[in-house]
Write a structure and sequence with these properties.
- The protein is an all-alpha fold and about 750 residues long.
- The chain has 34 helices and two strands.
- It has a two-stranded antiparallel sheet.
- α4 packs across α5 (about 75-85) and α23 (about 495-515) packs antiparallel against α24 (about 520-530).
Length: about 750
């Protein structure tokens, strides 16, 4: 175990800090310029010293960079003071530490003994006084090595720096400030470190992993640092927990499990923790019981992370049993939500109990999960939205920043389930704006650390949603740029990388189907198989549908439909079973339409409409209505189809994607012209044909933006027929020529056109 002397050793870096403590506390500087410098930056320097107390020892050049960011005169002041200390060897250091003791004595001492600066000074002074003469001589040699390189560079470049200072001051400050910020966020250990410095490093890395992972060290590099800490201080239990989190990042189950066992084993049987040392033997048993139940809870989370459902539930039930025996209600937020009939009852009891115990965080978290369950289970939207409003009130009153950000993302997801994509976009931008405000440079380091909780999963989900919205509008390059930003912010080894990878694969698959690139579509499905298995199976069926393999696709869709019945969640609570079922029913409807069997397609379309209406999914209901209208057109009922489409157009034009809008407009034009063809009035017919041309031009423009060659070809062919009926030969030939050009470069396996829903 580490001893107290090991924690409080004197190092050259700490001597540098003591120099500034002396300068801050003393008022009799001989150099008036140094006195003015200290008056000018006393406040900022004090804050920097408080931060440096907790950080690992820095090299002198790194310390000088941080001092320069505060004031350019501090570097020269430090180097001059260090030279004075070591100029006369041990006697100079002894005089320096004696002057520090003088600051703590007297009727009105310059440093109070119980202040942070005073405590630090006393510890370092006592540690120096315990040194033998040989140790002090060796320490002087260490001081010379510590300041040798920087002092030589300072003396050699002093004149050049003086002449160029006015020119390069601003750029130097900006560069140094950037390096200082990066260094404070990601401190690196150099040489021997104390337990407290190691603890600060580990706490900083764990915080970065959980909030802004791109700023943390990479898994291999962090593991090397942790190994060094374990070698120097094997009693720090937190190193095992940091290893556990690092293994989770790398998806290494064996290492994560071993590290978790090591952590709780050391926490359980070594009563001295690296961060908190028990002051007495009283309360040892409750503390050990507390560690046992949180060990089981972390074990459950580990198994859940790797999809080991049975093992996770067993560990979770053990944690709940131990917690109930000791009247600990922290277990409340780890409830089983498998879509069973008991899920709603458990959530109701959870929220009521958390509110009764006046635990606002768990109350808000429980209501948030309740809203998610209600939205996917088909609870009326007014009740869900009312609960979301109450959540926002609790989060604002109790300053729950992380849950406030999560609530915005949850609201966006719920509005998207309800088919209101424009409203979902607003809440997505709320979350992004809140996270951007939280990471403002004007915030202090403490508030930035508290707000950093908001900027991980919520930011990634919001960016992925924003990318999907851009792709739906045909802005594929912008969507790719957003995902590229996600890739830099959440690297591939990040625990959140699966989110943007899944979104990117879905967008690429949609684009590949639109443009008829089936090889790319197959590759996207293979990529999705490792990320989201239900989505990959559905999109694999879509590929077969586009390729015309109807014999294979029908049993596959039936199997997927059966797997989604009587469920609320799919894919570990990440997907709505009702929404998934509606998409499968639309694919089955499409299948029978391609087989020219509208009668068999109608039951699936009506089933989709019923499911969508019962779960208030307006977007899916609108798509089902379009399919029903297409069936009516196939059965010779164009007037009824026109009436149905017009009732649906408000939802589609307000919240539908560009592709669905173009398909709906095209279907409406076909139904209207089919209905008018039954009218014997030629002048009315000509008027209808002319009025359809601007709409068709707009549809062609939309399909071209999406790169949907098949649909562009169909609209051009329809335009050519209209121009031919109107007698516009030149326009007809132009449309026909472009249509033939598309056919020539069209893939041979492209299915015939219909209303494909992606």
């Amino acid at each position: 175990m580490a001893t107290k002397s090991q924690k409080d050793w004197v190092s050259p870096h700490k001597v540098s800090l003591l120099i500034f403590i002396k300068l801050i506390g003393s008022t009799d500087e001989e150099d008036e310029e140094d006195l003015e410098c200290m008056k000018r930056c006393r406040y900022k320097l004090s804050l920097l010293l408080l931060e440096l107390f907790e950080t690992p020892d820095l090299e002198l050049n790194e310390l000088c960079k941080r001092l320069t960011a505060v004031d350019v005169g501090l570097k020269d002041l430090l180097l001059k003071s260090l030279q004075n200390c070591v100029k006369t060897g041990v006697s100079g250091l002894s005089e320096f530490f004696q002057s520090l003791e003088d600051l703590l004595t007297g009727q009105e001492p310059a440093l109070h003994k119980k202040s942070l600066f005073g405590l630090f000074t006393r510890r370092m002074t006592l540690s120096f006084n315990k040194m033998t003469f040989g140790q002090a001589s060796h320490f002087v040699d260490q001081m010379k090595v510590y300041m040798g390189t920087e002092t030589f560079k300072h003396n050699a470049d002093e004149e050049a720096l003086d002449t160029s200072l006015d020119v390069s001051m601003q750029s130097t400050e900006n560069e140094d400030e950037g390096k200082v910020i990066n260094m404070s966020r990601n401190p690196v250990l150099h040489g021997p470190v104390t337990n407290r410095q190691a603890e600060f490093f580990l706490a900083n890395q764990v915080s970065l992993i959980q909030t802004t992972e791109q700023e943390a060290l990479s898994p291999p590099e962090l593991q090397l640092r942790i190994a060094d800490i374990l070698t120097a201080s094997p009693d720090i239990a937190e190193t095992h927990y940091a290893t556990f989190l690092n293994c989770l990042r790398a998806k290494e189950f064996k290492g994560a499990l071993d590290s978790l066992y090591h952590y709780f084993d050391q926490q359980q049987w070594h009563r001295e923790s690296a961060i908190k040392i028990a002051s007495s033997s009283e309360g040892t048993e409750p503390e050990r019981c507390h560690r046992f139940r949180y060990a089981a809870l972390n074990l459950a989370a580990l198994h859940c992370q790797f999809g080991h459902r049975e093992e996770a539930l067993a560990a979770l039930k053990e944690a709940i049993q131990i917690a109930q025996e000791t009247n600990d209600h922290g277990w409340l937020y780890r409830l089983e939500m498998d879509g069973s009939s008991q899920a709603k009852l458990l959530l109701d009891r959870f929220v009521a109990r958390a509110a009764e115990l006046k635990i606002p965080y768990l109350t808000s978290l429980g209501m948030l999960n309740h809203c998610q369950y209600d939205a996917m289970a088909g609870v009326p939207p007014p009740k869900v939205l009312q609960n979301l409003t109450q959540i926002n009130i609790i989060n604002s009153q109790k300053a729950l920043g992380d849950l406030n950000s999560a609530a915005h993302v949850q609201q966006a997801a719920i509005w998207q389930i309800y088919g209101k994509n424009c409203i979902a976009s607003i809440f997505t931008q709320f979350a992004l704006h809140q996270n951007a405000s939280a990471s403002s440079d004007l915030m202090t380091s403490v508030s930035r650390g508290a707000a950093g909780i908001q900027s991980a999963e919520a930011t990634c989900l919001s960016l992925c949603s924003l990318a999907e919205q851009h792709a739906d509008r045909g802005m594929f390059q912008e969507a790719s740029d957003i995902l590229s930003f996600c890739r830099t912010k959440f690297p591939e080894h990040s625990r959140l990388s699966q989110l943007w990878m899944t979104t990117g694969a879905i967008i690429d698959h949609n684009k590949a189907l639109l443009q008829g690139n089936m090889e790319r579509a197959k590759a996207c499905v293979e990529q999705l198989a490792a990320l989201d298995e239900p989505e990959a199976e559905y999109r694999s069926a879509l590929n077969l549908l586009h390729l015309g393999d109807y014999t294979t696709v029908f049993p596959r869709l039936e199997k997927l439909l059966e797997s989604s019945r009587d469920k609320v969640f799919l894919n570990d609570e990440k997907k709505s079973a009702a929404e998934y079922k509606a998409r499968i029913l639309l694919a089955l409807t499409q299948l029978f339409l391609l087989l020219s069997d509208p009668v068999s397609a109608l039951p699936h379309a009506l089933d989709c409409l019923t499911t969508s209406c019962s779960h208030f999914m307006d977007n899916s209901a609108a798509l089902a209505s379009l399919y029903i209208a297409q069936i009516q057109l196939s059965l010779g009922l164009p007037e009824k189809a026109v009436a149905l489409i017009k009732r649906t157009m408000v939802q589609i034009l307000s919240h539908g994607s560009l592709y669905v809008q173009c398909c709906a407009r095209f279907l409406l034009v076909k139904c209207q012209l089919t209905a008018s063809s039954q009218n014997q009035d030629k002048s009315r017919r000509e008027t209808d044909l002319r009025s359809a041309l601007p709409t068709l031009e707009r549809i062609v423009k939309g399909f071209r933006k999406l790169g949907a060659a098949d649909k562009t070809r169909d609209v051009l062919y329809f335009q050519a027929r209209i121009y031919d009926e109107l007698g516009f030969t030149i326009e007809r030939n132009a449309c026909a020529a472009e249509c033939c050009e598309i056919i020539q470069r069209q893939p041979a396996y492209s299915a015939r056109s219909s209303l494909f829903v992606l």
